[in-house]
Amino acid sequence: MYASDSLYRSAEEYLISAGNRMTRRQLRSCLKAPKVLHQEFLEIPFNHPNKLDIPGCSNKNRYRSIWPNEWTRVKLASQSLAIPPLSSLADPSVNYINANYIRGYDGAPRAFIATQGPLPNTINDFWAMIWQEKCPCVVMMTKLKEKNKVKCEPYLPLREEQYGRIFVTVRTTMPKNGYYVRDIELKKDDETHRMKHFWFTGWPDHKAPTSTANQLLELVKSVDSYRMAHRQKYGIAKSGPITVHCSAGIGRSGCFIATSIGCQQLREENMVDALGLVCQMRLDRGGMIQTPEQYEFVHHALSLYEKQLPETPTSAPMALTSSSGEASENASPSS
Q: Which member of 137, 246, 255, 263 is catalytic?
């Protein structure tokens, strides 16, 4: 065994086994020691994959160092693309897109897709993926430009546009608190697919401003509510993974997905394991959540969400005793 093999196996073992299950009270307390959270984050292996051996696919990557992990990467089917079925034999890169399936709560397979912001030459591939996977919505976590750097190519039409074999029509646009919601119809041949596009605009790259945490929670709730409604209306077969992208598809995308899963874990289990969530995501796509500040931000957002949940015997503060000796009850959740 080579040293690199040993290092890889130990990193993989860490990602499979590591966790830090916190009660709601512990979640509140951990934010008082951000350096401890930062150190915990820095010990998590990034699990970045090596370059894939697919000729011609590097020009479909936004960043040279960000590749999709092989075992979970999304592969485009020829029927989703505007190409003859045998084209993939001559050019294997036609089926390539820098995107990975991400597990959800309790390891639910393919709950999300994390991907990079489309490039000029991958917009058709992006919409082909949305069609192929029957995604109920896209969550966009980046502006098109930040500090004069292009972060994502404009891939939404003002009204209607054809991308490869997919016709994309924006029916309505609604401004919300920190994000926009677009109602979109996709059409290919005689089939249609309805979906929504959520564009969160208030979060700069590599940073994690706590002032946006409430807006992020509102977005998470809105996306989760729409996913459930979409699944009830169209059925599981026609309501696939939620696609999330920022620029590279690992930082802010990772924060959104971790917050979404963490909120569900708090609802279901009355506790949360952010460390375990990040490890699970990095097994699926290397580098998910890029900085210690983003890791702290996820804990901050989850702490805010926890305060919105009803108290339980395990999470409520100890009851105060009145002068008459009767225990007084907390009438409202902690805030």
A: 246
| Known catalytic membership, residue 246 | yes
274 in a labelled binding site: no
Residue 205, annotated as binding a ligand: yes
- Taking the model in full, what pTM does it have? 0.88
CATH number (3.90.190.10, 2.60.40.10, 3.30.429.10, 3.20.20.70) of 24-52+63-311 reads 3.90.190.10
Q: What are phi and psi of 285, to 5 degrees?
A: -150, 120
- The contacts of residue 40 (CB under 8 Å, 6+ apart) are 20, 275, 295
Minimal CA–CA distance to 173: which of 200, 202, 197, 193? 197
Q: Where are the beta strands (DSSP E) in 205-306?
A: 242-245, 271-272
Flag whether 116 is marked binding.
Answer: no
pLDDT tens-digit profile of 10-63?
899 999 999 999 999 999 999 999 999 999 999 999 999 988 878 889 999 999
Across the strands, what pairs with 167? 162, 187
Q: Specify whether the CB–CB gap between 279 and 14 falls below 8 A.
A: yes
